[in-house]
Amino acid sequence: MFSGCTHCWQKLWVDLLSDFLLFFRLLSYNFISIPCTVNILV
């Protein structure tokens, strides 16, 4: 039972981590692309 619980918790943490990394990656891409678009506009 405990192994099943830890497996579920590990899966939850992995999902949270991957979501957080994806979100962080999207944020960094936006920060990188914003100056580029500003340069293009200016």
Which helices and strands appear, and what pairs or packs with what?
Layout lengths: L1 H40 L1
Could you characterize the architecture of this molecule?
The protein has 42 residues and is an all-alpha fold. The protein has one domain (1-42). It is 95% helix and 0% strand. The protein has one helix spanning 2-41. The model has no long low-confidence stretch (mean pLDDT 78).
Overview in brief:
This protein has 42 residues and is mostly helical.
State mean pLDDT (0 to 100 scale): 78
Based on CA atoms alone, the radius of gyration comes out at 18 Å
Q: Which sheet architecture does the biggest sheet show?
A: none
Order of helices and strands: H
Please state the structural category.
Answer: mainly alpha
Helical fraction equals over 70%
Keywords: Membrane, Transmembrane, Transmembrane helix
Transmembrane segments: 20-41
List keywords for this structure.
0% strand, rod-shaped, mainly alpha, 42 residues
